[in-house]
Amino acid sequence: MATITPETVSLRLAVPEEFPVIMESGTRAFIHDPVFNYFGQVDEFLDIDVNSKGRQGVENFIRFLLIGAKELKGRVVVAVKPQEPGAESSPLKVENIVGAAIWLPPHKRLAPWRVPLFIRAGLFRGFKLWGVGLLNRIILDHVDKSEKALDECYKSRGIKESPEKSWYLQLIWVNPDFQGQGYLSVLMQEGFKNNGGDVPFTLEATTARSRDRYLHFGFELITPFRIGVKSTNELGLTTRGGPGVEVYSMIHWNDSQKEKPVATS
């Protein structure tokens, strides 16, 4: 694998004008993701090149996360591959933004009581694209279970702070055309370096492959949980009586918390 250098990639905060390009990149990365499949009640894998309602739902959800992060003073970081010499200059070309990370700061979350934010960010348009049970799938079946897993992990270490006192990695991805070239690593390291404060980092991995990548970056796996039980299979595709999708809440502790022992009963 080639070494990523300043000459091969630049990292910077995104501007809102770039959100459509970032949405396109994120849609390509998550079009077959099990959790996105479950949120969208997908019966079969979506075709990235077909402008279906399901594809629009993925794009709309990423738009919601981008706008939500902007309003909550989060950080949307993009990895940009410089254009080839002689190429027409355009900072908004899809092929130049090869990946992105959406970070939410401590105590800033897309909570369901933020109704005006949900409206401005366009989540309710998702009802037309992903069905009226969307909030139940996102909030009750996903967010609540993840928060419970994090709470139990903190209590087991005797940590009194809330898990919300962490930088939350809402999404991170690399366009499939550029995966395996080190861009994910530089995006993650940028977050570790520039997200301020001696606080932990939290996230959810949606596949075993992404879970293993995050373990490599120093995250700790806590008790997995399942969503979509009895309504989806392991890939998030709708099926009656399926086992559901396994999701992995993970924590990258700060230096002081790494040393705390896990409580035993």
Summarize the structure.
By secondary structure, the chain is α+β, with helices and mostly antiparallel strands. It contains nine helices and eight strands.
Secondary-structure blueprint of this entry?
Layout: E1 10-13, H1 19-30, H2 34-39, H3 53-71, E2 75-80, E3 97-104, H4 115-121, H5 126-130, H6 134-156, E4 167-174, H7 183-194, E5 201-205, H8 208-216, E6 220-221, E7 225-227, E8 245-252, H9 255-258
Parallel strand pairs: 4-5
Antiparallel strand pairs: 1-2, 2-3, 3-4, 5-8, 6-8, 7-8
Helix pairs in contact: 1-3, 3-4
Question: In words, what does this structure look like?
Answer:
The chain has a single domain (10-258), classed as Gcn5-related N-acetyltransferase (GNAT) (Aminopeptidase), CATH 3.40.630.30. It is of the alpha+beta class. Helix 1 (19-30) packs across helix 3 (53-71) and helix 3 (53-71) crosses helix 4. Strands 1, 2, 3, 4, 5, 6, 7 and 8 form an 8-stranded mixed β-sheet that branches. The relative contact order is 0.17. The radius of gyration is 18 Å and the shape is globular. The protein has helices spanning 19-30, 34-39, 53-71, 115-121, 126-130, 134-156, 183-194, 208-216, 255-258; strands at 10-13, 75-80, 97-104, 167-174, 201-205, 220-221, 225-227, 245-252. It has 9 helices and 8 strands. Helix 7 (183-194) links the parallel strand 4 and strand 5 (201-205). 37% of the residues lie in helices and 17% in strands.
